[in-house]
Amino acid sequence: MALVFRDAEGILFIGYLEKGKTITGKYYSNLLTRLEEKIREKRPGLQKKKIIFPQDNAPAHKSVLAMGKLRDLHYELLEHPPCFPDLAPSDFCLFPKFKLFLAGKRFSSNQEAIAAIVGYFSDLTKNHYRDGIMALEHR
Questions:
Q1: Quick check: 7 and 49 in contact, CB under 8 A?
Q2: Alpha carbon distances (Å) from 67 to 29, 109, 139
Q3: Which of 137, 61, 120, 54 is CA-nearest to residue 88?
Q4: Domain definitions of the chain by residue range
Q5: So what CATH class is 2-135?
Q6: What average pLDDT does the chain have?
Q7: Please, which contacts does 2-9 make with residues 24 or more away whose CB atoms are closer than 8 Å?
Q8: Cα–Cα dist 139/88, whole Å
Q9: Global pTM?
Q10: 3-state secondary structure the chain
Q11: Lowest-pLDDT range, 4-18, 33-47, 68-82?
């Protein structure tokens, strides 16, 4: 499983969950720490700005550890309405074409799958990410 974090400029960080593992509050909290490191590295200007962080209501996301980490990072949480799954930002603009890209493909290793994922996202233009986020307003 790939956990993709992005902004209007592009991919910030992709975390890969090992096969057979589950996303827990501890795992997600550690992932947020790694995300913060990538934000500092790739978008140093964001350190002085408020980060609005969209998140759904998955149990790991709402765990005490994860919520504490978001508070420590000073991210403003953009709540996800529980009854509107079609409003998930990634499902709306990022993953539909990605699912088509993956359709019918078979990978012989995790490394091969990761290379395909990285290649797909690196081929997208900046406008793709920006337009997808801007389209959420009308959604």
A1: no
A2: 8, 34, 26
A3: 54
A4: 2-135
A5: alpha beta
A6: 85
A7: 2/114, 2/117, 3/31, 4/90, 4/94, 4/121, 5/35, 5/38, 6/90, 6/94, 6/129, 7/43, 7/129, 7/133, 8/126, 8/129, 8/130, 8/133, 8/134, 9/43, 9/126, 9/129, 9/130
A8: 10
A9: 0.80
A10: CEEEEEECCEEEEEEECCCCCCCCHHHHHHHHHHHHHHHHHHCHHHHHCCCEEEECCCCCCCCHHHHHHHHHHCCEEEECCCCCHHHCHHHHHHHHHHHHHHCCCCCCCHHHHHHHHHHHHHHCCHHHHHHHHHHCCCC
A11: 68-82
Tokens matching residue 111: 């490394």
CA distance 79 to 114: 30
Contact 3, 32 (CB under 8 A): no
Q: Are 13 and 5 in contact (CB under 8 A)?
A: yes
Q: Which residue type does 119 have?
A: G
pLDDT value of position 84 = 55
Q: Per the structure block, which two tokens stand in for 8? A: 């209007």
**Of 39, 41, 14, nearest to 114 (Cα)?**
14
